Amino acid sequence: MEEPLPEELLRAPAAGCGVERALEILEGKWSTLVLRELLSGPLRFTELRARLGGPSPKTLTDRLRMLEHQGVLTRTVHAEVPPRVVYELTARGRSIRPVLMAMLEWGEQDAAAHVVAGRPPSP
């Protein structure tokens, strides 16, 4: 039997609830994956892009700017030639770790359930 929904979720307003707020920050595949990669520590743009599997520079730049604007990461430009730019999670950004860990656990369980059922997991 399925567990009933928690009261907090049932009483959440349709607009502006915590789930909606979290999705504003985790908007899109690249935002979530950027946060995942930066949990391991600061990275340069090229390192981050390589770890992500090569999103376009424009897409990655847009996502990094959005996350910086939301206060979940910082962008530090070091005065060197050529300039070195490093991205790092703020305390607010690091606080998303349990959410990403829950997503990881759910995704792994879902993939395993599909394999057991004889269906390939969807991408």
TrEMBL record:
**What range(s) does the HTH hxlR-type domain occupy?**
17-115
Keyword tags: DNA-binding, Transcription, Transcription regulation
Q: Which InterPro entries match?
A: HTH_HxlR, WH-like_DNA-bd_sf, WH_DNA-bd_sf
Q: Does the keyword DNA-binding apply?
A: yes
* Protein name per its UniProtKB record: Helix-turn-helix transcriptional regulator
